[in-house]
Amino acid sequence: MIHVMLVDDQKMILEGLKNIIDWNKYGFKVVETASSAKDAISKFEKNPVDVIITDIKMPVMSGLDMIKHIKSINTRVKFILLSGYDNFEYAKKAIDYQVTEYLLKPIEETELIKVLEQLKMTINEQKAYISQQIDYYLKNALTNTLQDEVNKDDIQLFAYSKCFRYICIEIENEEDLISSKSDLSFMDANKKIRSLLLNFIGEEYENYIIKGEYEKVQFIIDDLVLNKVSDSAERFVRNLNNYIRENCEYKFTVYCGKKVSMINEIYLSKESVKLLQDIKFYKGINSVLIYDEYKDYKFSHFLSNAGILKDIVNTVKNGTEDDVKTAINKFIKNIEFEKILPESVILYVYNIVVDCCSILSDNSGNMLKYIYKFSVMKKSPYIVISTISYFIKDVCLNVKREVNEQKKKNNSGIIGDIVDYINNNYYNENINLQFFADKHFINSSYLGQLFKKKVGMSFNKYLTLIRIEQSKVLLCDKNVKIYEVAQKVGFKDANYFCVKFEEIQKLTPKEYREKMIESN
């Protein structure tokens, strides 16, 4: 729709112009009327139009002087001059000011329609060209590839703007973090929000909306938009947010970047939104985030107490499910209190997942499942602190349940496994009860009692007996020194070996060797 302003100092003529034709039928809309040249200039500066139909003779400032002033602001506006005088001088000046038409009063309906139809073709061609130019400027400005300043003669929409802001409406999708599936149609949501945005700012600013991703609606606001819709960027954004939420069911977050003074600096406004995206991590989805309100916000890169990560893993290994939840809640509270940078939080989560999976590494083939869950979650653009809390609990509690299942299985056949291991690995110096307790997720004291009950002797006594029996075989070879025999069967100290050997065999290792050689 082509916007029109009517200007005349006589109210009756203004009313006549408004009703002389069906403006909408021919693709025009009368959006402003003014009773003087100065009134017209004031209204135009706040709400530019495509066509101005004006009287020439008006008090204080003539129509021609008004045209001259408005042309200095916007070279593309079209003028139709009205006059009750067939005066060559007026016509000559109108030509100098590139006035489209000069019509004599009283205006004939058919003549006005003919002029408007010609104008419509010219304006539509002009708008198509401007649309291409603005699209080029904005896309390059947002990526910092705009080499030259905006040509204000060509891009009339930016002519008198002294500040610009990048605004982004990010459509939220609370997807399943595991499957990454969603019924949300970004295309439908984008179309709906874009339509509401145009209703809010006015169709004449359609070119301010950046074409691109379906997941977000990006656009630029400047002085013209603000002057028309609101008195501040903050109020504009909040009013826009409320208007869209009242008229659509989609969830979204609104970001408003910092103010810049030139269109070729708009990329700086877009870059400032990165801070707001990090802040959304803590504020949650459906937020309204304005740079001016958070420009001094500071993040920390590291937790002051990284030990709380180990606490989570330890509770997964040895605690109850309630212990696991308590440890995770403590971690989340510390993250929020210390304002940890979201990318650092993601790294902490990765470490927790890997450490929990390491508990299952020798006992379960499911560890890759949790690594995959993490990789899916990490790629989601909708991660907030509540997402992190849910994800860690989901992984840790599932690992905890697998650990508990493993313990149940181990309790039945664990002693047999330990005996087999000792029989085959007696030479390993690091074998002890704690080694098996860690391996099978069982308290070492309880394991010691269970072993004695099943085998009939303590763990240490059984291990020593096996090692002594193996040493007897090696002692038959006189070429192997006694300290070497001790080492080969798992004793770190040769003297201790000799003491234990004599205690069990009632002979020293040397005496046993001599006896065996003599008998052979």
Account of the protein in words:
The protein has 520 residues and is α/β, with parallel strands linked by helices. It is 58% helix and 10% strand. It is built from 21 helices and ten strands. It has helices spanning 11-19, 37-46, 63-73, 88-96, 109-142, 186-201, 223-229, 233-247, 266-283, 291-294, 307-318, 321-338, 342-360, 367-379, 385-425, 433-440, 444-455, 459-475, 482-488, 494-505, 509-519, and strands spanning 2-7, 28-34, 51-55, 78-83, 101-104, 164-171, 209-210, 216-222, 252-256, 288-290. A five-stranded parallel sheet has the order 2-1-3-4-5. It has a five-stranded mixed sheet with strand order 7-8-6-9-10, with helices on both faces. Strand 4 (78-83), helix 4 (88-96) and strand 5 form a beta-alpha-beta unit. The longest helix is centred in the last third of the chain and has 41 residues, at 385-425. It is rod-shaped and about 145 Å long.
What key attributes describe this structure?
single chain; 520 residues; alpha/beta; 10 strands
Residue stretches low in confidence (pLDDT < 50, at least 5 long) are 152-156, 176-183
Radius of gyration: 41 Å
Mean pLDDT: 84
The number of E-state strands comes to 10
The largest sheet, given as strand count, sense and whether it forms a barrel, is: 5 strands, parallel
Gap from first CA to last CA: 116 Å
Q: Percent range for helical residues?
A: 55-70%
Strand pairing plus helix content: what structural class? alpha/beta
Number of helices: 21
Order of strands across the main sheet: 2-1-3-4-5
Shape: rod-shaped
Q: What is the strand content?
A: 5-15%
